User: Fold these one by one.
Assistant:
Number 1:
Amino acid sequence: MPARIQSALDAAGVQAAQIEWLWWVMFWVTAAVFVVVVAALLLAVRRGRSTDAPRPDDRSLLRAVASAVAVTIVILFGLLYASAATGRAIGSRPDDKPLVIQITGQQWWWSIEYLDEAPSQRFTTANELHIPVGRPIVLNLRSPDVIHSFWVPNLHGKMDLIPGRLNTSWLRADTPGIYRGQCAEFCGMQHAHMGFVVVAEPPDAYQRWETAQRQNAPEPTAPQQLRGRGIVERGPCALCHTVRGTQAGGRTAPDLTHFASRSTIAAATAPNTPGYLAGWIANPQHLKPGNRMPATGLNAEDLQAVLAYLETLR
Ligand code: CUA
């Protein structure tokens, strides 16, 4: 699936298309105003310099200023109307049965919980949001500590995640693709590295992904992988991370049950490759200084075993 450039001017969803339209209206109107003002300024400078140009009388000056003010007011009200109409259009939610996803902003990553009326059907992942194309997605946005802002420019505008408050937003992707999103509200040291990925895929592909995500972590087979699982379960990892189907049940860091199926690590800071992952686990503060993951102090052999196990979490 193609990865699209993160841009509000490359709309791939209904609301983003409305916002893009508004952007271009504002751009062309203000560009036209700019051209007219600069032309008037240049004309005034030229007239002011030439000594034989006739001086305008007070009456025509007053008329010129009054009509400029009137045109300005009309343009500003026009833009205000366009802005309000866009706000209305992107806020009204369609009636089709939406998919409800709860997103919790953490310092500095995203916890993503797929809600379902049946609790057994719910599952949690992190930093990679999969959605089916064409279906409305309702987002419940929350934060336990500081204000974040959820923003996928290709799909929708921003919506804040505010502690003590539940904000809801909705979006719908109309084109399959991989879209980058990011936190758009300064939330501390690693705000700039609080990214995420949205994978908008055809409904059947999404359904396969959803079914796989509901499963517990697959059982490792190789001795090194089994050793790695033991270290994850009994070592420092389990204090913060969950791997469903194992004894690791920490709740303060990303759910790792299907970690290997995700394309990035550390909230879209680096690609999920063995090299980056080894560097990240060995010294998390190097790649993303200030983040909450402490150095694990694993020796080289244990680190290799943990890496081998994490690779099985597809
Ligand atoms: Cu979270 Cu900025």
Number 2:
Amino acid sequence: MYKPAITGTGVFTPEQVITNAELVKAFNAYADRMNAENADAIAAGDIKPMEHSSEEFIFKASGIEQRFVLDKTGVLDPDVMHPLLRQRSDDEPGVMAEMAVDAAKKALAQAGKTAADVDAVICAASNLERAYPAVAIEIQQLLGIEGFAFDMNVACSSATFGIQAAADMIRSGSIRSALVVNPEICSAHLEWRDRDCHFIFGDVATATLIEREEDATGPHFEIISTRCATEFSNNIRNNNGFLRRSRPDGVADRRDMQFMQNGRKVFKEVLPMVSQHIAQHMADENVESDNLKRVWLHQANKTMNDFIGKKVLGRTPEPGEQPNILQDYANTSSAGSIIAFSQNSDDLEEGDVGLICSFGAGYSVGSVIVKRHA
Ligand code: COA
């Protein structure tokens, strides 16, 4: 048995930002237009008028202040209300592959490694640009990695499930190292015309290099233990996936083809599931909350994270103990906890123990207990 370790992480952040103010302005213009177009039906009581969104609500309900996206022009155009992502030819790199390669190069650089040191690529994400060939194999080819690659999808928990898959292969000796990449084009499956959820997501890609600990050449995080759990639920669901609305073939624009959630139920059902999962994982590994130096949680909602952080530590977390990035990135699905980890872990000291945890659709929850070696 070999010990796996996280030796590098990288984040690709899109250049374009949408603030809550910009988002609400576009949504309200769309709502006004829809209400004007449907004035007769509204007056007759056949349909309800669309209500305005508000910046105050978004911040209060979620803690989100802005989000990065690949294309803001389409999202903010009341005539479009979704990103305009050019359909690439089969000979060009896909969008997900391009984002993931950027993040992967940063992870390799941090670890002081090159493509030659990597044996496998796992592309773990909520929405895949196509069914096959696997996006991971395209990333493998673009990076010049030998070995193998495959895609997997466990929605918002994809990163931690991917880390477990990689860590298990490293432990068993079938590979020496793997890149787990999480390119999340959430803007392409968000329903930007739905007031209840239009503010939730952003785009990003993260990469995590996992190697045998004996191969680490710098500061790293030993993976002490991983744990995954799932329970079926329809409360977060997407029936058709990637940017269905941009199809020129006249396929009906059904609401269920984009992200749908019953946010209140998610709150009520996922919070106990995650708190119990983490508590049991820590107990089984003899990790006391007093000894947990940092918690990097899935980034969906600030209230949710405040609740979980308090449950896990048994007290209100001190600033920095449970870092949030959702105010800047919004919910980036599987990438969220890895952004938080990547941007808030360098200062930990030799022997410090931390926990990465993601959760979401499925339902799914995955946790990774790590120990810093500085
Ligand atoms: N602007 C203004 N008001 C809005 C609004 C908007 N954009 N969207 C909803 N509202 C209103 C609703 O109409 C409702 O009004 P009412 O009380 O008069 O009926 C009110 O705000 C409360 O709505 P509710 O859905 O109960 O809000 P909430 O506090 O639960 O927050 C979420 C909504 C989605 C942010 C929250 O439930 C959440 O984050 N859930 C879990 C999300 C999650 O983890 N998802 C996983 C995805 S990976």
